[in-house]
Amino acid sequence: MIPVSCFLEVILDNVRYSRDTKLSISLVLLGVAVCTVTDVSVNAKGFMAAAVAVWSTSLQQYVSKNTTNTRSTLNLN
Fold it and tell me: Of 13, 37, 33, 9, which is closest to residue 21 (Cα–Cα)?
């Protein structure tokens, strides 16, 4: 879920991550890929359900963070 959250921040907020952070995320993605390939029972339905769950949760966290930041800024004024 962290790589998807970072991807959303890069696309929607133009956030830039350091080389070390990008390398760490790449390592996580590699580990997920190895686990997925070596899993015996991968099917399309399960993969789609997992993808929808990760993307929707990441988007919800992104919106929640932005809403909280906006409200905090409004309260300071």
Answer: 9
